[in-house]
Design goal:
The complex is a heterotrimer of chains A (about 260), B (about 210) and C (about 300). Chain A has about 260 residues and is an all-alpha fold. Chain A has a domain of about 180 residues. Chain A has twelve helices and no strands. Chain A is globular and about 60 Å long. Chain B has about 210 residues and is mainly α. The chains are: A mainly alpha (about 260), B mainly alpha (about 210), C alpha/beta (about 300). The interface between A and B is medium-sized, with 30 and 31 residues. The complex binds adenosine-5'-triphosphate and magnesium ion. The site of adenosine-5'-triphosphate has 12 residues of chain C, from strand 2 and helix 1.
Amino acid sequence: MKGIAVAAAVVRYEARMAARSRAVWIGMVPVSLLGAVFGFATLTGQESARLNAGAMAETLLVIVPIGVAAVLADRLRRSRTTGLGELLDTMPLNGAACTVGALGGALAVALAPVLALVAVLGAVIAVRTGDPVAPVWALLAFLLVVLPACVWTAALAALLGLALSVTLARFLVIPLWYWAVYWNYTLWWVPTPVGTVLVPSGEYPAQAWFGTTPVWAGYGQLDWLSPAPAGAATGLANLACVLLGTALMVGCARLMRKR
Amino acid sequence: MTSLSATIALLWHESRRCGLAVWALPVAGAAVGGAVSGLPSVARSALLLASYSALACLAALCVVAVLGRARMLELHLSLPVPVPVLVARRLAVVAVSTAVAGAAGSLALVFGAGTEGALGAAAGAGTVLCTAALLSGVALWTWARWHSAAAASGALIAVWLGYALFWAANIPPGVNRPVCAVMGALLIWRGLRSLTDPDRVLAKEER
Amino acid sequence: MDVTITGLTKAFKGNTALNAVDLEFGGGMIGLLGPNGAGKTTLMRLLTGILRPSSGRITVGGHDLGNRAGRASVKRMLGYLPQHLDLYPDLSAREFLDYIGLLKGVDDKRARRAQVDALLGQVSLADSAKQRLGGFSGGMKRRVGIAQALMGDPRLVVVDEPTASLDPEERMRFRSLLASLGGQRTVVLSTHMLDDVAQTCSRAAVLAAGRVVYDGSTPGLTAFAEGRTYRIDTGGPQPAGDFSIANAAATGDGMRYRVITDTPPPKAVPVSATLEDGYVALMRDARAAREEAADGGR
Ligand SMILES: Nc1ncnc2c1ncn2[C@@H]1O[C@H](COP(=O)(O)OP(=O)(O)OP(=O)(O)O)[C@@H](O)[C@H]1O
Ligand SMILES: [Mg+2]
C-alpha cells in the first residue's frame, strides 16, 4: 500500500516537472504534428471506423515512440546529476516504485499531445465514415497499439540513458526501433525480432481488435516466436510480452540506479 | 593579435571541451560507409539515403552533446572571449569532424563498391554536409533559445524524422541541398546571435 | 582602478533586485555584505558587465560598461569568481588554469605556465595540480575558482562568496592572499562571514533589499550597535520582546543571548558592541525603515 502511495506521489511530481520542462513539449509537439500528417494520409474513410482507427494507430507507431524515447531518455539520469538521487536514496522509499513513477509521470505528460492528436483523428474518422463511435475506437487503438509501444521505447531509452550517455541513447533508440519493428530482413538479412510476438509493433493487437492485415506479424525469423496472428489470443500474448520486456528493462534500470 | 601557438593551444583545449562525441563521429562515418558498401546493390540504393541522413543526424546530435557539455557560462560571460565566439569555435571542431566523417564514409564506399560507389560518395558527402547544417542549426537554435540540451535533441529528432520521412523523400536533391544549407546557416546565425544576450545565457546556467 | 556606480537599478520580471544604487570606490578592497537576496550577486554581475542594468551607469577605470567597447576593455582586466562555478570535471587543475589563461589572452606559453604554477602554490593545490577537477572536494574546487579569478593578473577582482566551503586554515590563507593583492588592485568581495571583511577590507558596503544601507569604513559598522547591545542570561525559554538576537550560546546551565534593542528587557546587561552586533543593528534599522515606508505608502 505504501509503495503505491509513494509511486503516486512520484508520478504526480514527475508529471508536474515534465509538464513544466520545455524539453518535453518542444520534442513532442512537432512529433505529434508529424504524426498528424502521417495519420491523415491513412484515413481513406472507405472501410469501417474500427479498421481506420487500427490503421491510424499503426501509422503513428512509425514516429511517435521515437519521439517519446528521445524526450524521456534523460528521465532516470536527471535525478542523478542534480543530487536529488542521493537525497531520495536516504529516504525509506521503494526504489522500484520510484523508478516506475518517474518514468510513468513523465510519459503521461509526453503522451498528452499524442492523445490530443488521436482525439482529432478519431473525430475525422467519425466524419469520414459517419460512425459516431469512431472516437472510442481511436482511443482504444491508442491504448492497445500506441501506448504499449511508447512505454516500451521509453523504458528502453531511459535504460540506455543510464547505461550510456543521454545523447547517445536518444540517437540509438531510432535505429533500434526501426531494426526491432520494421527491418526488412528479406532485403538484407540480419537477426531481428521483426514479426515476433516480442516486439511492440502493434500488429498483433491491431489485427486482433481492429481487423487490420499485418505486414510482418507471423513472419519472424523464429517460427515458434511468431505465431500467425489469430485474434485476441495472439494479441494478448503480444501485449504480455511487451509488458514483460518493459518490466525487464525497468528492473535493469533500477539495478543500475542503485549502483 | 594572438600568437599562432596560443591559437593552436586554444583550439586543442576547445576540441577537448567537445568530448568523445567528436572523435566517434569519423569512426561512425567509416562504419556506415563500410556497411553500406557491403550490401547487395538493390539494398544499397534504398539504404544509402537513409544512412546519409542518419549520419547527418549523428553529426547534429554531436552538436547537442558538445553544447550540453558547456559549463560555467557565467564565468565565460566575464571573460574577454564572447560566448558566441566560444560556441562557434566548438561548432567548428564538430564541423571538421563531420567533414572527416563524410570523407571516411565516402572512402569506405569507394573501396567497397568501386566507381559506382565513387559517384554516389561524392554526391552523398554533399547531402550529408547540407543536412547536417540544417539539423545542427535546429539544435543550436533550440539550445540557445530554450536553455536546454534535452529540448535541443527533442526538436532535432522531430525535425530529422520530418526531413527523412517527407522532405528528402519528395524533394529533388538539387532543391533539397541548397535549401538545407541556407536554412541551416540562418538558424546557426540566429542561434549564435541570441547567445549575445547575457540574461538568456545566465538562465541556461541556472536552469 | 576607480569604479563609479550611479543610480544603478536592475529589475527582473516582477522584482527589483537593485534599486538606485550609488557607490564609488578606488583601489584596495571593498567588502560587500547583506542578507540572502539582498542583491550582492546581481551587483557583481552588473559590475563585471555580465548583466546589463535596467537603468543607471557604471564606469570602471574610465570605461563605460554601457557600451560594447567599454565592456570589452573591462573584461580584459577582470578576474571574476561566480557564486556557483560548475567546473569542467574532466580537466586537471593545471589544464583548467591554462585554458582560462588562454581565454584571458595570456598568449605566451612560458608566462602562462609560470602564473599557473604560482597560483596553484598560493591556493595550496600544487600537489593536486594533475588531478581531475571532477574528483576535487567542494573546498578544493572553490580554491581552483579563486586561482582562475587571479589568472592574467587582473586589475579588478570580483569574488562572490569566495570563502564559502573553505576550511578555517584555508580561509586564513585566502585572506592573506587577498590582502597581498589589495595594494595595487581593486578587489570586490562579497561574503556572509563578517570576519572576512573585518580582517581584509578597510571599506564595507551593506546591501539590503536592493539598496545600499551602509557605505563606509568597516569598523564604522560597529557604531550602529553602540549603546544598544545587551546580554541576557536565562535558564528558561528564549526571552521574548522587541529585539534582534545577535548571538546565542549555551553556558552550561542555560543560554546567553546578545540582543540589539532600544528598549532593553528588565534583566539585560549592557555590553560593548562588536562588528557582528553592528551588522545586526543595521539590518534591524533597515527593516524598520522599510516597514515604515510600506506603512506610509498605504
Ligand atoms: N535571473 C533572475 N531572475 C529573477 N530574479 C532574480 C534573478 N537573479 C536574481 N534575482 C532576484 O534578485 C534578488 C537579488 O538576488 P542576488 O542573487 O543578487 O542576491 P544575493 O545578495 O547574492 O543573495 P545570496 O546572499 O543568497 O547570494 C533576489 O530577490 C533574487 O530573487
Ligand atoms: Mg549571491
